[in-house]
Automatic annotation (TrEMBL):
Gene3D superfamilies: NADH:ubiquinone oxidoreductase, 30kDa subunit (3.30.460.80)
Gene Ontology MF terms: NADH dehydrogenase (ubiquinone) activity; oxidoreductase activity, acting on NAD(P)H
Transmembrane feature ranges: none
Full protein name: NADH dehydrogenase subunit 9
Family the UniProt entry places it in: Belongs to the complex I 30 kDa subunit family.
Record has Translocase as a keyword: yes
Length: 152
């Protein structure tokens, strides 16, 4: 069994699904993001939930733009904290009053959010290990040719 739903209020809906007698969702399996640059609300946040009691999965989707902040679902689903951090780190989708919203997959000095489609493929800096200095070195990217945009 599985079902999908779209909402602008994921916190209220997820609390309802956790507490309702006929759903009893106990686990937040995953929270992921999708970037759709052509949409007004370009980011989609997808919550994948599991009810072990009824052997069913529910997918809840909501959308946001660069300035919209989403309510975290850490209080009803403690495991969601890690997934929300990842969505923020990879896409830049912010969560209001999140207890621990910091980078989880990228370095603290990383500029931007790597899964956004507007991030340059080359990135901004080159990171490498310098054996003589025995440390990691960050250097600005040197482009050997001028940047070309092919989608016109």
């Amino acid at each position: 069994n599985s079902s999908d739903t779209n909402t602008d209020c994921p916190f209220q809906l997820l609390c309802f699904l956790k507490l309702h007698t006929y759903t009893r969702v106990q686990v937040s399996i995953d929270i992921c993001g999708v970037d759709h640059p052509s949409r007004k609300r370009r980011f989609e946040v997808v919550y994948n939930l599991l009810s072990t009691r009824y052997n069913s999965r529910i997918r809840v989707q909501t959308s946001a733009d660069e300035v919209t902040r989403i309510s975290p679902v850490v209080s009803p689903f403690p495991s969601a904290g890690r997934w929300e951090r990842e969505v923020w780190d990879m896409f830049g989708v912010s969560f209001i009053n999140h207890p621990d919203l910091r980078r989880i997959s990228t370095d603290y000095g990383f500029e931007g959010h790597p899964l956004r489609k507007d991030l340059p493929l080359s990135g901004y800096v080159e990171v490498r290990y310098d054996d003589p200095e025995k440390r990691v070195v960050s250097e600005p990217i040197e482009m050997t040719q001028e940047f070309r945009y092919f989608d016109s």
